[in-house]
Design brief:
The protein is mostly helical and about 130 residues long. The chain has eight helices and no strands. Helix 7 packs across helix 8.
């Protein structure tokens, strides 16, 4: 809900915008505002808004932030995984194997025990 002051400001803005250009100049000069300075200020705000990132870029950035929020801190176990087993696990995951299957593979053939949840969080954070 809008406060009374916000409603009054909206009505005043609608009135101001609805006036012809010369009337707007007169109104601004009557209140002591410099018309050229007023236009420059509006243009500066407009340029700042144009410099904002696009929706697609914002979405990509938010995905990265969410991944970093979920990513576990790399302790010794995580660093060991990234150094020795990351490329192999990434290739297995790319071939369609599930995280539990990759964990079992690492346990049997590489003698490296890791939980499926930790592996998933690590791989999402690293990719």
């Amino acid at each position: 809900m809008y406060t009374t002051q916000q409603q009054v400001e909206q009505q005043m803005l609608k009135f101001f915008v609805g006036q012809p250009l010369e009337t707007r100049r007169l109104i601004l000069s009557a209140v002591g505002a410099d018309y050229d300075g007023f236009i420059k200020m509006i243009l500066s705000f407009w340029e700042k808004e144009a410099d904002l990132p696009t929706d697609e870029l914002l979405e990509l950035r938010m995905k990265k932030v969410k991944i970093h929020l979920k990513a576990p801190r790399l302790g010794a176990h995580g660093r060991l995984f990234t150094l020795r087993h990351w490329p192999e696990a990434k290739r297995l995951h790319g071939q369609g194997y599930k995280y539990t299957e990759i964990c079992e593979y690492l346990k049997v053939f590489r003698k490296y025990v890791i939980s499926a949840a930790y592996l998933k969080r690590l791989m999402e954070a690293l990719s």
